[in-house]
Amino acid sequence: MSATGVAESAVEELERTRKELEQVRAELRELNKIGMALMSERDPEALLGLILTQARALTGSDAGSLYLVEEDERGTEFLHFLRAQNDTLPHLGSPDMRLPLDDTSVAGHAALSGESLLVADVYEIPEESPYTFNRAAYDDAHGYRAKSMLAVPMVDHRDKTIGVLQLINRKSDPDASIHTDEDSDRWVLPYTDHEVSVVASLAGQAAVSIENGKLHQEIENLLEGFIKASVTAIDSRDPATSGHSVRVTELTCDTAELITQQTDGPFADVAFSSGEMKQLRYACLLHDFGKVGVREATLVKEEKLPPVMGARVKGRFELIRLTLEADAATAKTAALQAKGIDGSAEDITAIEEKLSDDLGTLARYSDAIKAANVPRVLDEEAAGILEEIASKGFMAPDGVEQPYLTPDELHYLSIKRGNLDEAERKEIESHVVHSYDFLTNIPWTEDLSRIAEIVRGHHEKLNGKGYPDGATRDQLSLETRIMTVCDIFDALTASDRSYKRAMPVEKALQILRWEAEGGALEPDIVELFAESEVYKKVLEKDWREF
């Protein structure tokens, strides 16, 4: 060969080497980009699709499948066929089927051996091979011609095969469709060791991403379990409001989703992301967790009198009745002894009439106390009767005079509205701070970092008349303002509270509108909530189904 020929040959070889190096660099750059994309994808379903799409793109494959190794209820491993993609048959969806983890299939053989498997033509697999290709199940059924195939196991950091990437029909023309033998002969190329190397690199990254995804899902499941247990704890502490947290969550999240859907009006520019929706959901579920820090006697109190005090009043009035009857019996005996049967008749009649009057008065007092003990507005007349009762006294069997009502009992019965006095109301209101303190001690991830803030404001009013901070509108997030409306609506309409009847929906909505007109609630949220009737789904179903 002449010197010129040698030089030209060397130049050609250098150019070929340069192109090969550039191709390798390009593939490495692409693999790096794919790896970053895989690591950032948190949706398990999207991750599997991304892995298969990128593997096909790197190799120019017309079709592909993805399998994961899983265990059934008996602990037996199998291949879960989860993803399929096919450019020739794009209308076919992904299957969801199980294959035995054995040597009878190409994917099964790759999974068990832990080695990549190249097949030049799946219709010409040697008879002595342990694996076969079932052309009837796919090709014949859908008019396809599978030819070249590459199956690469996905191996994790423990050298355990967690799945298989299976690629079909490497093509010379990305736009070609493969239906017949003629199509496959014209367009299909065999897979080479180069594709094995590239896909193996991708499979390794995919295995790490899948394992990370599983770990992330396990953490999510753990968090969900913790939150579910927390809600159960809240409900067990306060059975009268059982289901409230779940209903408020449903109402709030549905309203937030409705706001996101608005294309005009005050919420046109608001769009809650999936991460923000998850944060809002957790905040709603945990918004009353601070009730675990409130005394049970206060939390479950249904009447104005504490249960022990109510029993004491009932017992005292029974004692008063017995005392009146005993005093009357003593007076009768004295009259009989002093005047005899005939002479005492008039006295005995007078004693019995007085006893009847006293017992009637006692019954009237008892009824007044029972009525006052019910959590409702106390009018002036009822308050006056209570004062009258408290001014009365009787001589107990031990010779000590006792009042019909003690100052403490009068205090509770004289509560003007509801069933809590000021101290008890403050204690109940403290649940917000308890919730906040509890939630701020949890090391939330960044996407859940505002949970405590959202929860702290759910009893605030936009006009600064709420609690615990007297915050105003500009200090409260939109999520908090939505939750506040839904929290009030459920408190008004809940049918599971033994101490009050459920309020009709129309009346509850009217109260929300009044509150909005008075500057306490967000008018736009209230109107969207009312006009959309977003609450109907919650009212129509059993909260235990959520």
The CATH topology name of the largest domain reads: Hypothetical protein af1432
Helix content: 55-70%
CATH superfamily of the largest domain: Hypothetical protein af1432
Note poorly predicted spans: none
Number of distinct helices: 19
| Beta-strand share of residues | 5-15%
**The CATH C-level class name of the largest domain:** Mainly Alpha
Task: Sketch the major β-sheet.
Answer: 7 strands, antiparallel
SS-derived structural category: alpha+beta
Under the CATH scheme, the architecture of the largest domain is Orthogonal Bundle
* C-alpha termini separation: 84 Å
Overall residue-averaged pLDDT value: 89
User: How many β strands by DSSP?
Assistant: 9
**Topology order in helix (H) and strand (E) letters:** HHEEEHEHEEHEHHHHHHHEEHHHHHHH
Overall structural domain count: 3
Rounded to the nearest angstrom, the radius of gyration is 39 Å
Question: Which helices and strands, and how do they pair?
Answer:
Elements: H1 3-40, H2 44-59, E1 61-71, E2 77-86, E3 97-100, H3 106-113, E4 117-119, H4 136-142, E5 149-155, E6 161-171, H5 181-187, E7 188-189, H6 193-237, H7 244-261, H8 274-285, H9 296-299, H10 307-343, H11 345-373, H12 380-390, E8 393-395, E9 401-403, H13 407-413, H14 422-440, H15 451-456, H16 478-493, H17 505-517, H18 523-532, H19 536-540
Helix pairs in contact: 1-2, 1-6, 2-6, 7-8, 7-16, 10-11, 11-12, 16-17, 17-18
Can you walk through the features of this model?
- A hairpin with a 5-residue loop joins strand 1 (61-71) and strand 2.
- Helices cover 56% and strands 10% of the residues.
- With 546 residues, the chain is an alpha+beta fold.
- The model has no long low-confidence stretch (mean pLDDT 89).
- The chain folds into three domains: 41-216, Beta-Lactamase; 238-296 and 425-545, Hypothetical protein af1432; 307-419.
- Helix 7 packs antiparallel against helix 8, helix 7 (244-261) packs across helix 16 (478-493) and helix 17 (505-517) runs antiparallel to helix 18 (523-532).
- The strands form two sheets. Strands 1, 2, 3, 4, 5, 6 and 7 form a seven-stranded antiparallel β-sheet that branches.
- The longest helix has 45 residues, at 193-237.
- The protein has 19 helices and nine strands.
